Amino acid sequence: MSQPEGQHNELSNLLNESRTFPPSEEFAAQANASAELYEKADADREAFWAEQASQLHWETEWDQVLDWSGAPFAKWFVGGRLNVAYNCVDRHVEAGNGDRVAIHWEGEPGDSRRITYAELQREVCRTANALASLGVGAGDRVAIYLPMLPEAVFAMLACARLGAMHSVVFGGFSAEALRSRVNDAQAKVVITSDGQYRRGKALPLKANVDEAVKETPSVEHVIVVRRTGGEVSWDDSRDKWWHDVVEGKPETHTPEAFDSEHPLFILYTSGTTGKPKGILHTSGGYLTQAAYTHRTVFDLKPESDVYWCTADIGWVTGHTYIVYGPLANGATQVIYEGTPNTPHEGRHWEVVAKYGVTIYYTAPTTIRTFMKWGAEIPARYDLSSLRVLGSVGEPINPEAWIWYRKHIGGDRTPIVDTWWQTETGAIMISPLPGVTSTKPGSAQRPLPGISAKVVNEAGEQVPHGSGGLLVLDKPWPSMLRGIWGDDDRYRETYWSKFADLGYYFAGDGAKYDDDGDIWLLGRVDDVMNVSGHRISTTEVESALVSHPNVAEAAVVGASDPTTGQGIVAFVILRGGVDDAASGEAALKELREHVSREIGPIAKPRQIMVVPELPKTRSGKIMRRLLRDVAENREIGDVTTLADSSVMDLISKGLKSSS
Ligand code: 6R9
């Protein structure tokens, strides 16, 4: 039953959250998804996926939907042949939609570009011709180290067109991170730009490539897009301007069809510890699930929707829900180059109003940042075009979910909380808009065609109302096909925990509620053990954020001589909360609040007020670094932080209570 927010006086958290939001009749009547989809997929999974795959253009039809005989290495649509770029570009032009806008690109300084599908086709062909002229062919690896520019999309699709694999490296990563990824993949070409705009400043980028390629013997060419006009050093034998190699190349290129299992890309996971893993994805199954989920989970109507995913292209969300899913579906989308507060904190809402964005997909961390900035900011803009909101990347706190729905979605839009991973390639667990009665904080049900379970350590499904580990018990089309160059690590990381059962272990904790809906509880390595009780960092964070004074919270388990682990919380207070809120009494009140919400066992041992939290570029809190602070250790490797100065800020400005 839906409850208007006003009637829900009690502040909620993950444990006692019970609000539900059924779809409106109006939305349900026009939705792409229907309840029958679940039944259809259950009745015959392979037939269901074959039907999804047949929405793509295949040069040669497959003769077998799934070959799992080489498990855990799957083959989907065996014998089928297709060209991924043709599917994302040319076929829309051939269908008469060449004039449809593919990309509304918005630069951080306010410049913009409008690229139709016909233009996209010409750009991708020219780029493919340029890469081919440099000797790039099927099976080669191309590293793409670019900011959010249209050229990043052209380059990815040009690789796909040629059957070359791209390895996109986030433009915020260091030279060292780039070097290790280029070497692991043995990339032949690196595509970069002179610089990038970040928070209103033009920062150098090529300089990192210069540094990295000193020790990457596989690299033959560096292609440089001119973006900021900043000065760059130049090696004539290696470096080429994008405009010199791409402009003047023919605007047509005949795509070759590749095997359904032909590799499409490698993407390194942010890897909080150890060597980054090169997650390998292939063509037919990946594109099938990317397109299906994008169409179904976001209710995409390609003729009328304007879709915007705020992720970076260097993250899997950018691959599947900026490049492959939306373009395979012929969508019109916004791509924004910059940060959400440049030049002001209303930038996203200005962009929504400017382009009439209808579907908006972002991360909980961004939503909580908007909460911190205040609801009066989005209130200044016309957001009435929005009709579906999405969330991805971490569990969303019910408070953030409710705020998102109310202040961005006008208390009207369905919210899809989408659980998936770099490894899964596409969305796996999510509500379906127009079908599911949504619950704030729950990703709810595996999508039609997907099977997931919450199990105990023995692999047995736990009863409703209990928690355990999330597993994927049946193969799915967009699953990873391995870790680049390391089959053993692939088997060990994902398939060894439940080897006898053949389950993929996702590394996430989860629980079923009484209705059997799934609630993700964060990585199992983020589960704390306090006096023998398992407590999720997410649950405590959720309780903290449900307090009116708290904008954002991160919780770690710090080793404790008596209880095993003690809970240490880092909190950012809401703007406008006066200084007294960080005083001893106020922090005591916060600890009591958690105790009230979850139980005395969850009461933080210590709460520290901080100005920022350390996050990776994909918005994940790096608890490892906070654990270092909590345990008074020297702070570890900060190279994967979006902003490495955050740790200095935290160490300097600590106010704590214990
Ligand atoms: C797409 C992406 C994967 C990990 C995953 C989980 C967390 C992602 C989530 C979520 C709860 C959601 N995660 N979406 N947790 N609810 N809706 O984020 O890929 O960067 O590989 O991260 O992110 O812990 O295991 P990736």
From TrEMBL:
Residues 1-23 are annotated as: Disordered. Residues 95-484 form the AMP-dependent synthetase/ligase domain. CoA binds at R198, R199, G200, K201, T317, N341, S531. It catalyses: acetate + ATP + CoA = acetyl-CoA + AMP + diphosphate. GO terms for molecular function: acetate-CoA ligase activity; AMP binding; ATP binding; metal ion binding. Gene3D superfamilies: 3.30.300.30, N-terminal domain of ligase-like. GO terms for cellular component: cytosol. Pfam families: ACAS_N, AMP-binding, AMP-binding_C. Residues 1-21 have a biased composition (Polar residues). CDD domains: ACS. ATP binds at G393, E394, P395, D417, T418, W419, W420, Q421, T422, D508, R523, R534. This is Acetyl-coenzyme A synthetase. It comes from Saccharopolyspora hordei. The gene is acsA.
